[in-house]
Amino acid sequence: MGQSLLISVILVISTVPFWACTFDYGSSTSERDDQPDIVMKDVEYVRVRDGDPIVRFTAETAERYDKRQTMELKNFTFEQFEHRGAEVNAVGTVGTASVQLDSGNIRMEEGVVLEVESENITIETQQLDWQDKERLLSGREENQVDISRSDGTNFSGHGFSANARSRTWGFSAGIEGTYIHEDEEEETPAEEPESAP
User: Fold this and answer.
1) How far apart are CA 184 and CA 159, in angstroms?
2) Whether 14 contacts 104, CB under 8 Å
3) Is 16 a residue whose pLDDT tops 50?
4) Which of 4, 29, 99, 119 is the least buried, fewest Cβ under 10 Å from its Cβ?
5) Within a 13 Å sphere around the CA of 166, how many CA atoms are in the beta-carbon half?
6) Residue 125 and residue 108: Cα distance in Å, rounded?
7) How far is CA 30 from CA 27, 39, 63, 69, 146, in A?
8) What is the mean pLDDT of residues 61-70?
9) pTM higher than 0.85, yes or no?
10) Distinct helix (H) and strand (E) counts, the chain
11) What is the model's pLDDT at position 193?
């Protein structure tokens, strides 16, 4: 798994608290932990660096819970741009995400699809966890994770884990799949026979 994918997911989700959007305060206030302090709907955010878009993300709903220090997202999508915003490098969709605001840890559930164009890789599963300090992405043992490439390479397994620092990934159980290795043969021009003097 490429480091750019992990960084994309973290940059996108960790910047959620800074979105501009409309607010729904509801009809009453509550001190209960299960009542969000802020509800934002139809959220869209574009992060720009040096005048160029670097990431765009949307969420149907974003709810912030101050006492629990969490942000709950529903129907979350993102696009990461490169080449001064001219090309999309990575896209992702997540059914729901829970962001721990103090640690940066993220739980993604209800369908996770991450596609990274530069790595030619797609990851699909029902649930993934990001541990920000450790820079680890992992899936639960009971959830199957599917990894595929456009060349036909595909792996499935349980107990998925990926380390963004070492740029490694693996499964702890039930791995199966196909790896396609395409030889890139160098074409050398045929030597022409020397002509007699």
Assistant:
1) 33
2) yes
3) no
4) 29
5) 9
6) 10
7) 10, 13, 14, 16, 42
8) 94
9) no
10) 1, 13
11) 47
Amino acid found at 31: E
DSSP, collapsed to helix, strand or coil, labels residue 114 as strand
Enter the tokens of residue 66: 């101050």
83: helix, strand or coil: coil
What is the chain's length? 197
Q: Answer for the pair 98, 89: CB distance below 8 angstroms, yes or no.
A: no
Q: Please tell me which residue, 157 or 89, carries the higher pLDDT value.
A: 157
What domains are there in the chain, each with its CATH number?
3-22+38-178 (2.60.450.10)
Q: How far apart are CA 134 and CA 106, in angstroms?
A: 12
What are the angstrom distances between the C-alpha of 3 and each of 6, 10, 50, 197?
5, 11, 22, 60
How far is 151 from 158, CA to CA, in rounded Å? 23
